[in-house]
Every structure is written in structure tokens, then in C-alpha cells.
Amino acid sequence: GFAPALSSLAFLLGLLTLAVQWVTREGAIAAVVGPLVVLVMVVALASGFGPMPAAPLRAGSWFVLHVAASLLGLALMAVAFAAAALYLLQHRELKQRRFGAAFKFLPPLEQLDRLNHLALVVGFPVLTVGVVLAVRYVGDFSNVDGDKAAHLGWGLLAWLVLGSIAFARMRRWLTGRRAAQVSIY
Q1: At what angle do helices 61-95 and 2-24 cross, to 10 degrees?
Q2: Inter-residue contact 135 to 66 (CB < 8 Å)
Q3: How big is the CA angle at 48 (ends 35 and 39), to the nearest 5 degrees?
Q4: Is 179:116 a contact under the CB 8 Å cutoff?
Q5: What is the DSSP letter of 98?
Q6: Is the pLDDT reported for residue 53 higher than 80?
Q7: Are 127 and 159 contacting, i.e. CB atoms less than 8 angstroms apart?
Q8: Which H helix or E strand runs over 110?
Q9: Which of the 8 DSSP states describes residue 54?
Q10: Rounded Cα distance, 123 and 120, in Å
């Protein structure tokens, strides 16, 4: 259901945030991802968990793998977003020569750029696995043609946009401030 998927996404976001904090020894990512986790959980709780619907076709391991890959890919994209937002904030602080509390709290620009790059480059292939499994799954189990088109259309559009950003990051066509701006949009 919708609420369990959102709560799982919030859980993965929280885990990734803890992993980033542990590896980088910086707590600034939690300042961006933390409120996002809370917002996702509020939406999950507001939508209600309710009883599990009977859906024997969705109990297969391929569906579980699709959901896990998709949610992990989305969580990595959220980490890339958080790193990009912090990069732009730190860049503005440096450009305006304000070296106050915000400047001291934020990690160096290079570290934020590397985190954005890593999250995009790792997150896109994981998301690709989720999309490929979704295409297979929707083709087999969806009964409504409009349902298939909506699922596949929006999913593939988002996949193409994220893929082009990840490809540009891998080729080093996008770096620094420009990469952060594109990651936000």
C-alpha cells in the first residue's frame, strides 16, 4: 500500500542519512533530510495504514525486489537533493563572504559535490533495476490500460530525467554549482 511504501522510504532515508553522517562526520545532511523524513512519515500516517488488501499476485519476490530497488533509488536521489541544497547554501555563504554559524556548520563544497555525485551515480542504477522490474510487473499484472500508461509514463519520464543528470555527472559535464542546481530541479 501507499502508507507502508512511504514509511519504508522514510526509513531508508533515515538510514542513508545516518550512513552519510557516519562516513563524513558531518551532521548537516540531517538538517535537510531530517525534515523530509518527518514529512514523508506524516503523509504516510495521514493516509492511513489500514488492513492489508488481499493481493496474492503482488506477494512475489520480484515485486518485493522492485519495491526495494525503487525505494532505495528514490532515497539516494533524496540524498543527492540534500547535498545539492547544502552545496548551494554553502556556495552562497562563501560568495557573500559570510563566515558565521551557517558556514561553520556546513561541510566543504568538494565534499558536498562528491556526495551529490555518488548519490546520483549509485542511485540511478538502483532506480533502473526498480523501473525495469516495474515495466515487467505492470505488463503482467495490471488490468487497466490507462493504469499501465500512467505508471509507465511518469516512471519512465522521471527515469529519463534522472538518468540524463546521472550521465552528465559521470561524464563530468556537470560539476559544482551547476550540478547542484540541476540536481535540485
Answers
A1: 50
A2: no
A3: 10
A4: yes
A5: -
A6: no
A7: yes
A8: helix 109-141
A9: -
A10: 5
